[in-house]
Structures are given as structure tokens and as C-alpha cells.
What does this fold into?
Amino acid sequence: MGQTLTEKILDDHLVEGDLQTGEEIGIEIDQVLTQDTTGTMVWLQFEAMGLDEVQTEIAAQYCDHQTYQFDFKNTDDHRFLRSAAGTYGAHFSRPGNGICHNVHRENFAAPGKTLLGSDSHTPTPGGLGELAIGAGGIDVTVAMGGAPYYIEMPEVVNVRLEGELPDWATAKDVILELLRRLTVKGGVGKILEYTGPGVETLTAPERMTITNMGTELGATSSIFPTDEQTEDYLERVGRGGEYVPLQPDDDAEYDDEIVVDLSDLEPLIAEPSMPDKVVPVSEVAGTDVDQVIVGSCTNGAYEDVLPAAKMLEGREVNKKTEMIVAPGSKQASELLARQGWVAEMMAAGVNFSEATCGACIGIGHVPASDSVSVRTFNRNFEGRSGIEDDNVYLCSPEVAAAAALKGEIVDPRDLSDELGDLEAPGFELAEEYDASKADLITPDEAVDDELVKGPNIGEVPLRDGIDEDIAGEVLLKMDDNITTDHIIPATQDILMYRSNIDKLSEFTLSRVDETFADRAAEADGGVLLAGENYGQGSSREHAAMCPMHLGVEAVLAQSFARIHRANLFNFGIVPLVIDEDAYDGIDQGDEVEIVEDVESGVSEGRSEFTVTVNGDEEYTATLDASQRERDILAAGGKLSWTKAQAEEGG
Ligand code: F3S
It folds into this structure.
């Protein structure tokens, strides 16, 4: 039987296990990336493990999430990150140089390689044929030290593209259409592999918009085959020599197939406040728009900003709307500036911003309360923009620019008819991506050779094993689809403490219940209760680290999002799956006990545990985990486990 492209790359990197769906496999990692919110812990953990030097072909540290310096804390972190990259042999991308995924794809992403990143949108270079997976920081630390990355072999789904995109429909509409059909849970446990005649009609950057936002489907990764489009892009970024032809075998068998006819697509938009609430733009046309932002790792590349710039050329942003363009990388800004597009956009009334994540996580350009913001981003979870009563819509740069011109949501095809001279801008690559590399410091150019830790750099939290019995209060009962943004918000006032877990923990779950951290500290631990898809969204391991620091021993949920589930193991919190009856039968404030030798049960492979509620009712909770995950949990987390292993090994 032939192999899928995913299987071919995994096979090339396989160090343990068989490529059977659901089996745990260990794979070699060629490249790692980390960013500033997750990176400080990555390097503190690297230091705590006593490792000397990065072992992967490429390790890259980006500073993109919190580049605005409000006081010393972000600067402290960035200085520490530069010193860590220099000390251990990683590339360092300075604050302002751009978003990790954009800078990585421009400089390092390569077909056939594996990439592990401590950011959930790490799968972006799947559009170039790289198998890229998002993970928790500690997983990246361990991979960077040369150890394999372990993962359950996902299902491989064939997303067959047919036809060709019509005018005004874009790559963003391809992924919005998939979100409309499959929802934010539709990709869980799956790698989406794109095939079919529609693939060759999409350029590599368009493919990377699609693979980037596969994360919103919950997919482990998304990947395209390579072809002339891939080679063309690599040549334009000056890395043509890294091209490798990669295709699935003709007789490859997939676990499932989804067909998307590109010719049927039209401009789509995700309504507030979930990326899968997708409707045709025409359905919400007429909604007044207060703010428009073009940018982010999904649609912030040169090729994404250019269509919006063309639409704005010689026109003006509507007086009732504010428009911001924040390119995904300084390379994009530099090219747009050299070609005169920055001036055109400024003349049209655009506020041109630094290349940063910024507004995507509520840092800068926070919308006015109860206003409408139309963005080209990938996520619109409630409150992520920096204000709770936000109304954030997600769409393509074309739909965003049309909204800015009209002052209300409008199907760009209708606006084109109305204005008479507004043509579909199309999708165009730069002749050559010949921007400066001044903000990228290679290991050879390192300016530090020892760690520099300012007062904002704290200690790595450690849990020393798990308790024999779990007994405590249900500290919080939560609904479905709780995000890591709910657990640890990413806004500036909170995430500036990302390297200081003692302080950051005070904000744990504050967006769900402001009293949570105080109650958890007072109760000295307890358990959390949640519905489906607990922990979706960002990869930030602080969403497990802070509950651990507050003494949370277990999470009972109907299901877990992949990266967060791994992070719970990595920080010694027992992730137990319960059914709907148990979820309905347990309430906040109930006393729960799991008293059947939890520690030995975890270590010895028991999958069912009895949860006694208020000393009376009993429910079954399931621990579905590999032996390796069980050992990590029993050790109190991955750092304790890795250190113990290193000691055993002498
Ligand atoms: Fe940054 Fe938002 Fe992407 S936070 S990495 S631009 S999802």
C-alpha cells in the first residue's frame, strides 16, 4: 500500500513505534521555534535540565507577542531570550522583526523537514511541505535537547481541492469554509493533507494561510505537497536550493476525505466570537464597522497586505472607521515601503503599525467597548481583543479593506459594482524578497555567551510526583470550548508576568471567575470540571503551569484539546475524561475524592478511576494515556521526569 505524504515524512523521522493510527510514535525533530511568551520558560527549562547546546538543525527564538515595552518586564524577557539564544546556539529574531511563523517561513521552513514549535500556529509552513506541529514549551525544550517528540499517530485526512478560486474568493475563504463545515473540533487528532488539482492553483503563501488556520480546526497539523509553486516561492526568498519534490503515492490510503471545490467559494466571514461561526459576507452586510485590522500570522504577509493596499489606492477609509495595518514581518513592511505601498495606505487613512502579534492578543488597538472590529486574524474568542464585550469578525484582507472603505461589512463584489472601478486585486508574490536581515541574529553572530536574568525572570515551577489520593473541592465548573486564553489571558497587563509564575498564577481563570486564584490558594488545591474541548486555542503551557502552582491536582472534562492535554501531563495534573452524566451530576463546590491509589493506578496503566462526589454518588473517569505519559504524570511532570531519567542514565 502506498503512503500519504504525512506518512512519508514521519517514516523518514521515525525513531520509535509504528505508523498505526492511535499508536504512540517518537519522531526526530529537525527544527524548533519558540516565541517570547512561551520562550522564557523553554530556556529556563533548558537550563534546569543542564543541557549545553541546541541539538536540532535549526532553533529559532522570536520576539513577537509582546514587543511593546511598557516598563522593564518585556525588555527584561527579551534580553534574557537573546542571551539564551546566544548561549545555547539558537537564532534570535529581535522584537519588531515580525511574527514567528512569518519570519520562520521566510528564513528557515523547508520541505520534508519536521518542525516543533511552542506556538499553536506552528503548522503554518505545512504550506511549504514541512511537517510542523505545535506543542508545549517543555516538549520543545526536550526536542531542542535532541530527544524525540512523542505523539499519538493522528488520522490522515485527504482534503481534496478541485477547481480554481473565483475573483474575490481567497485562501482565507478555503479555511473558513472548512471551519464552517467541520467546526473548531473537526480536526482534532487529525493531520489534514491537501491534494487534488486545485492545489497547483494556489501559491505557497496562499497555502500557508490555509495551513496556519488548520489550528482553529484543532488539527495536529496541515500539509501540502510540493511542486513548482513551492520551488518558485523558495527561489524568491533566496532558498531555491532547499526545494525537495514531495507527493503522496498514487495509491495512498487516507482515513477520510473531504472535497472542496474552490470554484464554488465566495467571500466568507466568521461572526463573533468563535472562528467556526462562518457565514457568507452577504449575510452580515450592513453591519457598522468601527475598526478594521489587516495583519497577523494568518494574513499579515506581503502578499496579504498588498490586495488591501491596492483596494485602498486613491481612495479613503470611511470616516467612521479606523483602519490599522500590522504586517506579519519587517520584511513585509520593508518591501511594501520600498514599493510605495506604505505611503499609499497612509494617504488612504491607514494607521501603519509595527510587525507584531499585538492586537491579536489584545495588546494595542483594543476595540472600543461593544464595538465591531473586522480583522484578518485567525481567532476571535470573546475577550481576546482586550475587552470582554468585543464583536470581532474574521475575514480575508479583501473583505477587511472593503469594510474599511464602506464603513460597514459589505461583500466586496457588491462594493465593486457600487464603485464601478474597484477590481479584484488578485494575489501576487514579490519578484524577490530581498529585505534586510539586520534583525535576525544567527548563532555565529551571537552577542551573548551567558544568561542575563533581570528581576522579571523567576523560577521554573516543579511538582514532585502526584498524590496517592486526590481529594478536594470542585473549584470551578466550566462550559464547552474553554480556551487557554480563558485560563491565562494573554493581555499585556497579565502576560508580562509570563516568566514569574508566582505572580502570573494570581490571574488564573480570572476571566471565568475573578475569585478563582484566591479560592484555589485557600483550598490548597482541588479539581477543575469542564465540558468538551477543554484548553483549545493557544499552546501556552502557563495554562497548565499556573493551575499546578495553585495546587490543582486533576481536571475532569468531557474532552481535551491536544496541546493542552499534553501540557497537563507535562505539569503533573491528571487529565480525566468523564461522560455527560458525570458532567451534569457534579457541581462547583462539591467535594470529590479519587481514592484508589491514584499514583500507582496511573503508573500501572489503570484506565478507569471512580470519582466519589460528596461521599455518596459515584462516577467513572477515564485516563487514556500511553505508558510514557503515565510515567511523566507520576513523576509530577516532564521536567521532573526528564531530570530523573538523566540521573538514572548517569
Ligand atoms: Fe501571534 Fe496571533 Fe499568530 S498571537 S502567532 S498573530 S495567532
User: Anything to note?
Assistant: The pocket of FE3-S4 cluster is lined by residues 65, 99, 101, 119, 121, 296-297, 357, 360-361, 378 (CB under 6 Å). The radius of gyration is 24 Å.
